[in-house]
Amino acid sequence: MKKYHLILLSIFSGILFSIAWPVNGFPVFLFFSFVPLLYIEDFIYKNKKNFSIFSILFYSYPAFFVWNLLTTWWIWNSTETGAIMAILLNSLFMAVFFNLYHITKRILYKNNQGYFILIFYWITWEFLHLDWDLSWPWLNLGNGFASYTKWIQWYEFTGIFGGTFWILLVNIIIYKLLVELLNKNKSLKKIIVLSSFSLLLIFLPIIFSYIIYNNYEEEKNPVNVVVVQPNIDPYSEQYNLPPSVIIDKIFKLAEPEIDSLTDFVVCPESANQEDIWERNIKNYPSIIQLKKFIKKYPYINFVIGASTYKRLEHEQAFTNAARKFHDSDNYYYAYNTVIFLDSSDIIRLYHKSKLTPGVEKMPSWKILKPLENFAIDLGGTIGTLATDKEKKVFNTKDSLKVAVLICYESVYGEFITKFVRNGANLIFLITNDGWWGNTPGHRQHFSFSPLRAIETRRSFARSANTGISCFINQKGDVFQKTEYWIPAVIKQNINANSKLTFYVKCGDYLGRISAFISALFILITISMGIVNRRKPLKLS
Q1: Which one of 57, 243, 355, 533 is separated from 385 by 20 to 30 angstroms, measured CA to CA?
Q2: What is the pTM of this model?
């Protein structure tokens, strides 16, 4: 086999990943996507005289580049530089971990065994990718089943890392089957065993999931929610129209659906575009406008997104999110905020905690500081935003506890479990998906919400400025899904829940276990590498 054949195989792997990915893909292809890469890895070892130990990095990179390009190209619609960096860097990180797997397998097992190491290394990569400056877990393998939620009801026990484990294990078994089929001295017994094992590994989790799905029943704790989708163009209207005009549009949409049974009105991220300093929040015209509306309907709780600011005192310690005033030596924080209002005088706030890299969070490393100049302008909130450390839930007069997530936060499973452990009975997601246009971006983002509903067994109400808004039950079923770029209002009873799933209690335990095992393997690999170098040459 020539070297360019390896490149073609790598590209084929990337295509398999891409045609498996939500929302239009079929996830069965994920069970075969690593097979070409595993073949490349074996071939390079068998011909190691012609390849360096880092060759896998070069030959696996096309697979991950194609996958990233074909599934996340839509980032370009909001930020060209961000799209280039996300695709190039994410592909590189994936290739690095696959090369690391090759090095460990090569040193510890002489490449004869050790395929299972890939499972631990890859889950470790996905786990570490959840919490650092360049966090972009969009393509974590377990997300690949987002459009087929009846297959993965057991995510309530494992989270998405259970899906990653499943995909990698099946790939390894299928690759071993392929190797045996290509073997001149093939064993029929081994082929039958591997074929049977592959089919069982694929279908048993799906059957188990359907059993869970068909037997899961929600407790009847109905909460009546009105969700508003105002459809304000983020590029031409949202930051140019007066805030009062946008809020009036929200009122006109919501009011026909509000009645004496309505508990919540939920509006999108950044729907209130008045620049609000939190110290005097009650005095702002938009807040007064909202409070007047609530006086007409004193039984409702009103949720809306906004941009807010907080001045820092001189003696106050601050983070890299602090911004300097242009006309003084004082500093302030900018936030992407949820405003929670009811008939009381208290105005409660939650500040987005999982920020979008390259948009709301700039890398803290000095070498990447110039990238801040290319960040998308979100109505004056360019650069790193400040966050809340506390995972706040909002209490209502009826003793309900609600978590309100903002946009990108819905991608993080364990992050959301912290709100549930703090008592959240329901989850609302407010977002503005218009930045990406009518591309797979907003549809992929929508598809992750049912995964979070399954993991936590919490009902969701999703309010998106330009679509897709909907309701999601505790099994991940979607109701009243709205059209993209069309103003809409939807209303439904969703059930509150107070029970905690195993995943909520334990979080990403598979990630932690994998990280621990991977650290051990890396240490052993380094030790064995040093020992092998010190061994004296044997003279023939």
Answers
A1: 243
A2: 0.94
